[in-house]
Amino acid sequence: MLLRPGDLLVFNDTRVIKARFFGTKETGGQVEVLLERILDATHAIAQIRASKSPKPGTRLRLANAFEVAVTGRAGANDEFFALESVDRSSFWDLAERFGQLPLPPYIEHPPEGADETRYQTVYARAPGAVAAPTAGLHFDEAMLDTLRAQGVSTVFLTLHVGAGTYQPVRVDKIVEHKMHSEHFEISPATTNAIASTRAAGGRVIAVGTTSLRALESAGKHDGTVKAGASETDIFITPGYRFKVVDRLITNFHLPKSTLLMLVSAFAGYANIRAAYAHAVAERYRFFSYGDAMLLEKSDAV
Fold it and tell me: What is the pTM of this model?
């Protein structure tokens, strides 16, 4: 059996919001806005695609329904823009009413009704992500019930996935790459389950790199995990020593991505090369709706 009684699966229960908007600048130029994070009801940070970057003070009319003001740049490298709702409407409400589901760019059709179900995990609960934690898409309610009946426990944490997670590494020295910060929260019930699993000799299995990043960010050197809410910009590369997670379920990731570096750190570079060679030879599917792998933690790099 790949999983055994006493193992613990840790899922990310974030929910993808309708974070993409199309609109115009005051000059009439076209813009595309992708919310990266809603900071509070009337403030957000976002990626903006336009022929010319909007300057502070620019107003954007989105979905031909409401206006936002660009108040400046945001992010470690000024790659995001700070936005403010002009009429004080809630960004949460605006996203739900006028936004589009931010499907990955390789899915070429506009979001449809079915996408709103397919691009969410069955256990999605806490709205705030702009990309799905895709390893969780492999699980349905029937599978979760079967696993629990076999003695495999399940718990949840929340990490709101930002678009920056999937950005390629564009620097020659990986130490110069800056990860975007993401908000996460881990409940005492989840940290207690992790402690109990470890004490009983079970394995902690992260479902997805987002779950792993949250656990390792909150993890202590003795393998325990601190409960609470925090931010993480952890960048895991080969040589990192994992404190909490014993196994990882994850999709196949793209070359030059931080996620490919993470799985290489976890399972060992040679093992990942072999897994990818097998996947290519057997024509596995990549990307969000692609195939997954179950990785064992290795000390090799």
Answer: 0.91
